[in-house]
Specification:
The structure is a single chain. The chain is α/β, with parallel strands linked by helices. A hairpin with a 2-residue loop joins strand 11 (168-171) and strand 12 (174-177). The strands form three sheets. The protein has a seven-stranded mixed sheet. Strands 8-7-10 form a three-stranded mixed sheet, with no helix packed on it. Strands 4-5 form a two-stranded antiparallel sheet. The chain has helices at 3-18, 21-24, 42-50, 127-138, and strands spanning 28-30, 54-60, 66-70, 77-81, 87-91, 106-109, 113-115, 120-121, 143-147, 153-154, 168-171, 174-177.
């Protein structure tokens, strides 16, 4: 996809996501800054912030766990190179600690795919598995939403015993909710 295609897809994704009742009523949303070929999140982050939503963004720790910081606009992001991994855009302000995510009403998750059961396939680093386990231990029950391209909603992805289904997937063409979540 060209840069223009990615930007337009990001705007379409933001429009669809902002229609979610969960986001309409959210006070705090844990999100992420898209990188590489991921569906763009910039428009959504700015729209949430304009609504007065507190947006938390992750900062990768050396052990692949995630710390969190507040999003204060694109100028508040720093490009951080993590060893041999890809560079990420992280909040440059104060760190709130890994448990800050437990205050989120909605957690927007990156992924490579989601299947008909709502099972999400991540990148394999385990960062979001740790986040989901942390939420469960804290008794927090935010709505879990994956942001993907339409072609990344597939029939089946591999899942392990610790994997939990998400509540919904948002793509540029619409929202799909999963039964039982």
């Amino acid at each position: 996809m060209t840069d223009d295609d990615v930007a337009e897809t990001g705007r379409a994704l933001a429009r669809r996501a902002l229609e979610l009742p969960e986001l309409a009523h959210a006070r705090t949303v844990a999100a992420y800054v898209s990188v590489g070929s991921e569906p763009g999140t910039a428009a959504l982050l700015d729209a949430l912030r304009a609504r007065g939503v507190r947006v938390l963004l992750p900062a990768l720790l050396p052990d692949n766990d995630l710390d969190w910081g507040e999003y204060a606009g694109l100028g508040s992001l720093a490009r951080v190179q993590h060893g041999g991994k890809m560079a990420l855009f992280e909040p440059s302000g104060a760190r709130l600690g890994p448990d800050a995510v437990t205050a989120a009403d909605v957690v927007l998750l990156p992924g490579l795919a989601v299947d008909a059961r709502g099972m999400r396939l991540g990148r394999g680093g385990g960062s979001y598995d740790r986040v989901l386990a942390r939420l469960e231990r804290a008794g927090a029950c935010p709505r879990l939403v994956v942001l993907l391209y339409d072609t990344e909603v597939v029939a089946h992805v591999p899942a392990e015993a610790h994997d939990k289904p998400v509540h919904a997937v948002v793509t540029p063409s619409g929202v799909r909710r999963f039964p039982g979540t």
